[in-house]
Amino acid sequence: MKKQLLLLLTAILSLSASAQISFEKGYFINNSGEKIDCLIKNIEWRNNPTEFEYQLVQNGTLMNENIKSVKEFGIYNSSKYVRSTVKIDKSPTHINNLSDDKNPVFVEEQLFLKVLVEGKSNLYQYENGNIQRFFYNKDTANIEQLVFKNFKNSEDKTGENNQFRQQLWNDLKCPSITMNKMANLKYQKNSLTNFFAEYNKCNNSEFVNYDRKVKRDLFNLSIRPRLNNSSLFIKDLVSNSTDIDFGSKLGFGIGIEAEYILPYNKNKWAIAIEPTYQNFKSEKAIDGSYFSGGNQIATVNYNYIDIPLSVRHYFFLSSNAKIFINASYIFDVNSKSSIEFTRAPNTYINSAKLITRSNFGFGVGYKFKDKYSLEMRWQTSRNVTGDYFIWNSDYKTFSVIFGYSLF
User: Where is the secretion signal located (predicted)?
Assistant: First the structure.
C-alpha cells in the first residue's frame, strides 16, 4: 500500500507541476509607449519583481521582459506595477541591527512599484525580504517614499520615526481626515490603503483599489464519510504464546472537517481539523493461552475518534478542479476499547484495555467545484497496546474518503 500511495503521489505532483503555471490576461507598456496585450505568468510576487515572463497567445512562445524595457505592466483585475526612479531608505529593520540615527538614509534606485491605490492620490508598495516601504504621489507629482524608521534611542530602546504621518497631513487635506485619525494611522498596508481610499472618496475622485481582495470563501465545513481498510497484529514479546493476527477488515467511518484557507498565495494552502469516528472489530481463534490455558477466541473491539490536524496544499487544474496533498498529526480518543479473551461456549476469561496513541497521516485527493472531494489517506502504524509490556501491536488504516462541503 505504501508503494502504491507513493507512485500515486509522484504521478499527481508530476501532473500538477505544469498545472501550477498560470498565465493570465495582462499587458505591458514598453519604452516607446506601446501597450501590448499578452498573457503574463502570474507568480504573485512577494518581492517586487524586476522582470516577468509572458506569452502573446495561449501556449505560445515563452518570452521575457524586464525593468529596463518596460515602463508599466499589469494583470487585469489583479495587480499593476509601474517603473519609477525613487529615493528609498533601506535601513535595517531587525532589532539587533537598528541604527541610532532616526533619519532615513536614502539611495536612488529604479524599481517596479506595486500600485495599491490609484486615483487623485496614489499609494505604492515595495517589498524585498524584511524591507517593506510605501510610496505616494498626488496628481502628477514625483513619487516619494512615506518615511517610517525604527531606530535605537539614547536609552538603547527602540524608537520610531513616523514622519509619514506629517507628510500625509501636509499633502492630503480632507475634512474627514482628522488629527486623531492621523495619529492612529499605521505604517501597514491595510491602514494606508484605507486612508488613501478615504482621501480619494473625500475629493470625489474615481480610484482603483488594487489591494481589494475578491471575496473568497476561506472557511469550509464538510461531511466526510469513508471506507476503511484496517489491520491489527499483536506480537507477544516475552512468552511462547501465539502472536495474534486479526487480519484486514473493511469498515466505515464518518468525520466532520473544518478547513481554513490561508488568505495568501492564491488559496493554495489550508489548515484543517477533522474529528472522525471509526471502529475496528475482529476475532481470532488462538492456540495456547495468555491467561489460563486452552484454546481461546480473542475478540477486538476498537472504537475511537481520530482528530487529525492537517496542513494541505492545493494544485489548481482549472477553475473547477484541483488536486491536493496533505499531512496530518492525528490524536486518537478511544472509548471502552478492549481485546476480550473467551473460551467456548462464551466463557469469559479476561480482557485487555486498548489505549490511545497518536500517529501521522498522509493523503492525496481531488476536489471538484469546491463541493465534492475524494481522498486516499494512509496512516502510519499505531501501537494500541502500549500499556502492556508483553505485547507490541501494529494497527494500520488506509481510507478512501468522500467529501461534501456543506458551506
Answer: 1-19
Contact (CB, 8 A) for 57 and 39: yes
Q: What is the rounded end-to-end Cα distance, in angstroms, of the chain?
A: 33
Q: Which three cell numbers stand for residue 365?
A: 485527493
User: Nearest to residue 92, comparing CAs of 130, 48, 133?
Assistant: 130
CA–CA separation, 182 and 194 (whole Å): 12
Torsion, Cα 347 353 354 357, to 10 degrees, reads: -170
C-alpha cell at 149: 524608521
Q: Examine residue 345 and say whether the peptide bond preceding it is cis (omega within 30 degrees of 0).
A: yes
What is the rounded distance in angstroms from the CA atom of residue 90 to the CA atom of residue 95?
Answer: 14
The separation between CA 277 and the C-alpha centre of its own chain, rounded to angstroms, equals: 26
Would you state the pLDDT for residue 215?
46
C-alpha cell at 61: 512562445
Q: Which domains does the chain have, with CATH numbers?
A: 19-77 (no CATH), 91-212 (no CATH), 219-405 (2.40.160)
